[in-house]
Design a protein that fits this description.
Length: 493
């Protein structure tokens, strides 16, 4: 298996993703998307939006501000509890995540332990500074939010939002009423979030600015039903149960229907999202055995939650949470109701109720990292490495190449490309270098098809289409290109 480091190098050399402010040596935890990376990310979002938002008449998307007033984050608990434990070196003054140091040395999971308890473990295990081997100070906590002044005269504190979810909770009332909704109703949002991570690492896996695609599904807690559960109940997922983690057991394969019946899943809406996520991530080219849901242990689960299930992707450095799924009960609305002094309960046929919330929270950059790693092909035989992106997320669906740069072939190729662009396909033109070099360049950015215009095209309007994965070529008529490419986008070619 290739490593994410290999992929990071490829992304840099191909301008897909590179450090922010690179000419100033960059800044840790921030990355920019280049032209190819930008389209890949846009297509991922488009695909997610189709699958998780547009195909539901009761899920609405909003686009909220990235700066939030302090009051919101006081109500959400971020001001007080969105902290990481840190241990500073007495000698070189470098700062480290205390829980990571302990986990790396002992393999023991210590989330939820107090600074005092962590200090004790560090002393007992004789853990030293990983940079200079110096002794470590007592563990203290550090708030991860990035603070800013809202007004020029100061006095009003704001924060860059640490998650997109809070705009959704604060907008719930207005969206619910203006869309004339009934429960269940979902609000989705795609956008940037900010966390001042102590040790950003693993390329785009742990960043200080990243993007999320979140849904808060507001449901009636008295119902315990999901109108679309039947569509997904037979979908099998990979699941690591709490019991398996406690007793060193194995991952199981189970349908979401069975997992709900057995009481592992607290609500059918959780099952609905888990099934959809499993299918969605497979459709991004991530193999089934590199995907699993982990039922978080009681000590990792917030007190108000009735169950958290992380979708994890297997990377070369281990499994990593990429989508957090939580049954958040009425915790968020209740808290905002109290702090803002507004009513957020809604009228239903069974009387007033404060909705419960099921939240799937997708990390875009971790998803992109998973896509890049699992679609990367090191190909000695072909002589170049390439990406096997599925057509729906490939930055370009096809390259259009005139065989030679003369005799009217470039003009014919331009006609073909203009028509394909008008039809809405993402295609690019390339006439420089040998046809082999052009295939290589197209493969390197994961282009599923190469369309070549040759002398026969001038005679009979046919072109060759080379398939990136098999390298096989077929000949088809120009007028059939649209149907061919549409089928490819639907995964049929
Ligand atoms: N609203 C719930 C929430 O934000 P989370 O588990 O903290 O939950 C959800 O974050 C997802 O956001 C994670 O599964 C991960 O994919 C992504 N994420 C969180 N912190 C990140 C970071 N520092 N860098 C990149 N992605 C991050």
């Amino acid at each position: 298996m290739s490593t994410l480091k290999d992929v990071q190098t490829v992304c840099l050399t191909r301008g897909i993703i590179f450090p922010t402010a690179e000419i100033y040596s960059g800044v840790s935890g921030f990355f920019d998307y280049g032209p190819i990376g930008t389209i890949l990310k846009q297509k991922l979002i488009k695909s997610w939006r189709e699958e998780f938002v547009k195909s539901h008449s009761n899920i609405f998307e909003i686009d909220g501000s990235t700066v939030l007033p302090e009051k919101v984050l006081e109500a959400s608990g971020h001001l007080e509890s969105f902290v990481d434990p840190i241990a500073q070196c007495k000698k070189c003054k470098s700062i480290h995540r205390a829980d990571h140091l302990i986990e790396d040395k002992t393999g023991k999971f210590v989330e939820g332990k107090t600074p005092k308890e962590l200090t004790k473990i560090i002393e007992k295990e004789k853990i030293k500074c990983p940079s200079c081997k110096g002794g470590l100070m007592d563990v203290r906590v550090f708030n991860l939010m990035l603070k800013t002044d809202i007004s020029p005269t100061g006095g009003q504190t704001g924060y860059l939002r640490p998650e997109t979810a809070q705009n959704i909770f604060t907008a719930f009332n207005r969206v619910y009423r203006t869309t004339r909704s009934k429960l269940p109703m979902g609000i989705a949002q795609v956008g940037h979030s900010f966390r001042n991570e102590i040790s950003p690492r693993n390329f785009i896996v742990r960043l200080r600015e990243f993007s999320q695609m979140e849904i808060e599904m507001f449901i009636d807690p008295r119902e315990k039903s999901c109108e679309r559960f039947d569509e997904v109940k037979d979908i099998q997922i990979n699941l690591v149960t709490q019991e398996a983690q406690q007793k060193k057991g194995k991952m199981i394969k189970i349908t979401v229907g069975e997992a709900f019946e057995k009481g592992i899943l607290p609500d059918p809406w959780i099952g609905y999202f888990l099934a959809k996520e499993f299918e969605f991530y497979k459709s991004l080219g991530i193999p089934e055995d590199a995907l699993r849901f982990r039922h978080m242990l009681p000590e990792e689960t917030p007190h108000y939650s009735e169950g958290n299930f992380d979708l994890e992707i297997k990377f070369d450095f281990g499994w990593k949470e990429t989508v957090g799924n939580a049954y958040r009960t009425d915790h968020d609305l209740k808290s905002h109701m109290k702090h803002a002094n507004v009513k957020l309960d809604v009228q239903t046929e069974k009387g007033k109720v404060l909705p419960h919330v099921v939240e799937p929270s997708f990390g875009i950059e971790r998803t992109v990292a998973g896509i890049l790693l699992h679609n990367y092909v090191e190909d000695k035989e072909r002589g170049w490495d390439w990406f096997k992106f599925p057509a729906k997320i490939a930055p370009y669906l096809a390259g259009v190449f005139p065989l030679v740069r003369k005799d009217g072939l470039p003009e014919k190729a331009q006609d073909v490309i203009e028509d394909l662009k008008k039809e809405g396909f993402d295609v690019f033109y390339d006439e420089s270098g040998s046809i082999g070099k052009r295939y290589a360049r197209a493969d390197e950015i994961g282009t599923p098809f190469a369309i070549t215009i040759d002398y026969d095209t001038l005679k009979d309007d046919t072109v060759t289409i080379r398939n990136r994965d098999s390298t096989k070529q077929i000949r088809i008529h120009i007028k059939d290109l649209r149907v061919f490419l549409e089928a490819a986008l639907r995964g049929l070619e």
